[in-house]
Specification:
Number of helices: 4
Number of strands: 12
CATH topology of the largest domain: Elongation Factor Tu (Ef-tu), domain 3
CATH superfamily of the largest domain: Translation factors
CATH class of the largest domain: Mainly Beta
Strand order of the largest sheet: 1-2-11-10-7-12
Distance between the termini: 17 Å
Structural class: mainly beta
Shape: extended
CATH architecture of the largest domain: Beta Barrel
Strand content: 35-45%
Helix content: 10-25%
Radius of gyration: 23 Å
Length: 213
Amino acid sequence: MSIELLCRKIGMTRIFDEKGEAVTVTVLTAGPNYVVQKKTEDTDGYVALQLGFGEKRRKVTTRPQLGHFDKAKVAPQRHLHESRVSAEDAAKYEVGQELRADVFTAGQTVDVIGTSKGRGTAGVVKRHHFSMQKWTHGTHEGFRSPGSIGPGTWPAHVIKGLRMAGRMGNEQVTVRNLVIARIDLDANRILIRGAVPGANDGLVRVRAAIAPR
């Protein structure tokens, strides 16, 4: 259990490491995040930190939410998310405290959670990487069709769980064991090796890897 820092995906670029080799990285803006609420075993039955990200105007915030943020003495936040942590880790933070990119360190292994790009309704070739049918021997109008969907069944029926056409993307994706290439404390940015899920300007969560290799 560790803090899941809310970040904004900026985009991808490349940097050069100490050996002079080019490294492809994804740039994330790490907040700042604010501790809006602390939950404990006595009051809530579990231990967690509620983090807020992305300041928004008071006039577009409901009164109950304003009371929640005013109690924590932080500006209204656009996004809220709970991070399950241990009681020892929760004791290190106070309500209203600001969290920045220095929660992590360069070289640390992390997991990144985001929402993948939505591709709409897709066929089996694009969605499940099926092979296309032959363009010869009488095949026509069915080059990208899935083929038989219930072979050898009696009575005839569609096999449960069969991969078929449907909505593709726009779902939560967790990419595990990515390495932080660099931390830019001045700009409050995290540079992670490789790609992370989601489109540019999308919201992602970064946590310490739960099963590092």
